Amino acid sequence: MDTFQHIVLEWYARHGRKLPWRETKDPYKILVSEMMLQQTQVDRVIPKYHMFLARFPTVQALASAPTSDVLKLWSGLGYNRRALYLQTCAQEIVALRHFPDDVDGLRILPGIGPYTGAAVLSFAFNADIPVIDVNIELLYKRIFYGNKETVEALAVKHLPLGRSRDWHNALMDLGSLFCTSKNPKCSLCPLEKVCSSADNEKRIQETRKKKNVIPFRQSDRIVRGTILKLLTAKPYSISDLHVAVKNEGIERTAEHFQRIVSQLESDGLIEVRQKMVRLPSQLKKEI
């Protein structure tokens, strides 16, 4: 075992975060957590994770549930299309009569990309497969700054066989707690002495991914989320729904609002029937 592996695994054994999805090897529960954790902070996910599994404890329960119930429980997490993908996955798994335990089997499920598939295999089955999200990628780039190998090659090279689950949980913790995109806490990080970028501002900045992000209040996401939140209480006409969204302090023109409603309907997140907007009763199969 190389020094990098030893430091990471020893630190994790002592200081790894206690998170509910780390207390199970059930692939369904891990899939739920991975879908929820996409672009959503851990502290927001934890209560929703418990609530969701209390209502849908098995893949069969989720597959057969009314889609409106799934969306109601998902409300507040954002990126609501993930809830539809998750329910479609559950239906596909029930149809298969087993949970896929290899890359090809997982990748055919809707909404399962390379990262999510690898994460489920690692955390549920302890498969010796690299799991690379944006935080782990940043960690490798900083530790091995100047190395000509790709991040994928480095991840494969340093993955300790038989320890995939612990290894990737540890890297995620190190990225979250120390190796943040801005202002990493190098002096506190256990990898400081083996990291090629530690305390080097130039290298730290070079490895950052800079994004042009639209402020949340100006984005369509806040409108979409507010619409779905309102619809968890009752159906609305489009005009009344527009007024209700305005009452939440969110101003959009009628034309812009109609485009958002149409896109939500196209995405399968709402239904418009007899001029009333409501949550869908059943999942559309094309999702």
Average predicted local confidence, pLDDT: 93
- Tell me the number of strands: 3
Under CATH, the topology of the largest domain can be stated as Endonuclease III, domain 1
Low-confidence stretches: none
The Cα radius of gyration reads: 21 Å
Number of domains: 3
Would you tell me the structural class of the helices and strands? mainly alpha
Q: Which overall shape is indicated by the principal axes computed on the Cα atoms?
A: globular
Q: What top-tier CATH class of the largest domain fits best? A: Mainly Alpha
Question: Helices and strands, in N-to-C order?
Answer: HHHHHHHHHHHHHEHHEE
Q: What is the chains' assembly state?
A: single chain
Strand arrangement, major sheet: 1-3-2
The profile of the biggest β sheet is: 3 strands, antiparallel
Notable characteristics:
287 residues, mainly alpha, Endonuclease III, domain 1, Endonuclease Iii, domain 2, Arc Repressor Mutant, subunit A, 3 domains, 3-stranded antiparallel beta sheet, 15 helices, 55% helix
